[in-house]
Amino acid sequence: MIDSADRTSRLPGFYDKSLRERAATIAEWAGLAAEQIAALDGTGGLSPDQADHMIENVVGTHALPLGVATNFLINGREVLVPMAIEEPSVVAGASFMAKLARDGGGFFAHTTEPQMIGQMQILDAADPASARLALLENKARILELANQIDPVIVKFGGGARDLEVRLISDSPIGPFLVAHLIYDTRDAMGANAVNTACESLAPIVEQITGGRVHLRILSNLADRRLARARCAIAPTSLAFGEFTGENVRDRIIEAWAFAAADPYRAATHNKGIMNGVDAVVIVTGNDWRAVEAGAHSYAARSGRYTSLSAWGRDANGNLVGSLEMPMAVGTVGGATKVHPTAQAALKLMGVTSARELAEIIVSVGLAQNLAALRALATEGIQRGHMTLHARQVAIAAGATGELIEVVAGRLVAEKVVRIDRAEEVLGELRLANQ
Ligand code: MEV
C-alpha cells in the first residue's frame, strides 16, 4: 500500500493501461487484499450462493462495468472513486472535471447529521388539531420509547431525535395527521430501523390521538440528511480549442440557468448529476432507487422542479459550482455489508463512515454535472460520446480484439455510428485480411 502521505489520485496514463495493470495499480494504491481485488476486477465478487440469500427466486447475478475515476481531491483527501455504470463517458468525464477542480483545492463537501424521517399516517382522530397537540405534549415519552426499540443504533450514538406532527387538511379523504419521527441512523441507510420504530410506536400514537395509525414507513424525501459539495475552477483551466476560459465559464452558467428555469431541462440536467451519484451508490451496494427518489423530490420541493446544482462566478472570475441533495446511504447493514464488491469499493475509497461516503458521492455528482455542462455548452455531447459509443457498436456487430478499435475509428471518421455500417466495415476488414 502506498503511504497515505505520498498518495495522489492523479494517475496519469491510467486510461492507457491494460485492465490487469489498472487493477494492480489500485490494489497497491489502496492496499487491497487478493479477495478485494477479485471483487473489483470481476474474477470474484458476489457469488450466486450469496445472492440467493439476498432476494427471492435467484438464478444468478448481474454484472456492470466497474471503472475507477481518478483525480478526486475531496476535503483535502486524495480519493479514487469506483463507479459501476454501463454508460460511456461518465467515468472519463468525472475524472477530467476532478482534474480541473484540483487547482482550486478540489471539492469541499459536508453533510448534515444522518437523520431520516419515518412517517405515520393517523386517520380517524375525532379532532385532528387537538390530537396533534396531544402528540407533541407526549414527545419526550414517544422518543424514549422509540429509543428502546433498537439499542444497537442508540449504542452507536443514533436514535430518535424529534417528533413533528403535520395536519394535512387538503386531502381526498378529508383532514388527517402525519407524524414524522426524526431518527438518526448513523452509518446505516436506516430504512429498517426507521420502519421498525414507526411500526412499534403505532399503538402508543393511537392511544394518545384516539385515531388509527395507517401507513408506517420511511420517507425517501430525506431532506434532513443532506450532502453538499462545492468547487471553484479558474478560467485558465477551462479554456480549450477555440474557446477561452471566460467563454466556457459563461456558457456553463447559461446552460445551468436553462435547468434552473425549466423543468424539462432540469430533468436531464439532474439525470447527468445522477450518472455520477448512482454509479457510486450502486458500487457500494446502496439503494439507488431511494437516492433517486430523494434527489428528484428534493429538486421539486419548492413546488416547481428545478436544478439540484447551481453554477456562477466568484469575485475572482472563477467558475463556482455547488450541489445539495439528500443522500441516504450507509456503510453498514444490508447489501453494503454482504456484497464483497461493495466492501472492496469502500476500502478503495478509504471510507470509514456513511457521511464520508455521502461527501464523496455528492462531489462526484457535481463533477459529473460539470462534465455534461462543459460538453453541452461548447462542442456538444456527441463528439466525446461518439468514440466510446462506436466501440460498443463495433462489439455489438461482432468485432473482437484489435478490430474493435479499427471498426470504431472508421465509424467515428465517417460520423455514422450504426450497427449496419459496423457490420459492413467488419465484413470489408475480414475480406481484406483473408
Ligand atoms: C446523459 O446521460 C446526461 C446528459 O444528458 C446530462 C445533461 O444533459 O446535463 C448529458
What does this 3D model show about the protein?
With 434 residues, this protein is an alpha+beta fold. The protein has 3 domains: 4-112 and 226-380, 3-hydroxy-3-methylglutaryl-coenzyme A Reductase, Chain A, domain 2 (Alpha-Beta Complex); 115-219, Hydroxymethylglutaryl-CoA reductase, class I/II, NAD/NADP-binding domain (Alpha-Beta Plaits); 383-432, Helicase, Ruva Protein, domain 3 (Orthogonal Bundle), CATH 1.10.8. Helices cover 50% and strands 18% of the residues. It has helices at residues 19-30, 34-41, 48-52, 90-102, 128-137, 139-147, 151-155, 191-209, 235-238, 245-261, 263-283, 288-299, 334-338, 340-349, 354-377, 382-396, 402-414, 419-432, and strands at 66-74, 77-84, 108-111, 115-123, 159-168, 176-184, 212-219, 226-233, 309-313, 319-326. A hairpin with a 7-residue loop joins strand 5 and strand 6 (176-184). Helix 6 runs antiparallel to helix 8 (191-209) and helix 11 (263-283) crosses helix 15. The two termini are 48 Å apart. The mean pLDDT is 95. (R)-mevalonate is lined by residues 87, 268-269, 271-272, 275, 372, 376, 381.
